[in-house]
Design brief:
- This protein has 4 helices and no strands.
- By secondary structure, it is mainly α.
- It has a domain at 42-132: Hemerythrin-like (Four Helix Bundle (Hemerythrin (Met), subunit A), Up-down Bundle).
- Helix 1 (15-36) runs antiparallel to helix 2 (44-69), helix 2 (44-69) packs antiparallel against helix 3 and helix 3 runs antiparallel to helix 4 (103-132).
- The protein starts with 14 loop residues before the first helix and ends with a helix.
């Protein structure tokens, strides 16, 4: 069973953003599968690459939409993105030093992000956009 099951209520209604979120869920589930099959921690190098890449293209796409639509809570939302990026960079640095974190830390981090950020902050943006487009 996947660690995180996608549900329709997670869609924010912007195809590009929803695709990015689905991709992140897939990354989380893949990492969980790797953890269950006791893959070596080396496999996480690829995940970090993907996450650093994701933080760049996904956050800039989302922030562009917020700016163009006049989303009022943009600054607070952007701060959360910056925090995610900083945490990924820090975890990656620790990983390269062969320190923590390994699987469990990353799984907890991503699961928490999906639950707290996508389901709350990004869905709030989705509701704002839906109202504005009425
Ligand atoms: Fe966001």
């Amino acid at each position: 069973m996947a660690i995180f099951e996608w549900q329709d209520r997670f869609f924010i209604g912007v195809a590009q953003i929803d695709e990015h979120h689905l991709h992140l869920v897939e990354l989380l589930n893949k990492t969980h599968r790797d953890f269950l099959r006791q893959a070596p921690p080396d496999i996480l190098a690829e995940l970090f690459e993907e996450l650093i890449d994701y933080a760049t293209y996904h956050f800039s796409a989302e922030e562009k939409i917020m700016l163009e639509s006049g989303f009022p809570d943009i600054d607070r939302h952007k701060q959360k993105h910056a925090k995610f990026s900083a945490e990924v960079v820090e975890m990656h640095a620790n990983y390269l030093k062969k320190q923590k974190p390994f699987f469990l830390e990353i799984l907890a981090f991503l699961q928490n992000w999906l639950e707290s950020h996508i389901l709350q902050s990004d869905c709030e943006l989705g509701r704002f956009l839906a109202k504005r487009n009425k």
